[in-house]
Amino acid sequence: MLSVWELFWRMTVGYVTAFLRLIWKPAEKSIRGEIALVTGAGHGLGRLFCIRLAELGATVVAVNKNKARNTETVEILKQMGVTAYGFTADLSKAMFVIHRHSFASYILFTRVASKIREEVGDVTMLINNAGVIYPTDILSLTEEIISNTFHVNVISHFLLIKEFLPNMKQNNHGHIFAMSSQAGLMGTPFMTDYSASKHGIVGLMEGLRHELRRQNMDGIKITCVCSSFVSTSNKQYNCAHTRIHRKEIS
Question: pLDDT > 70: what percent of the chain?
Answer without folding.
Answer: 83
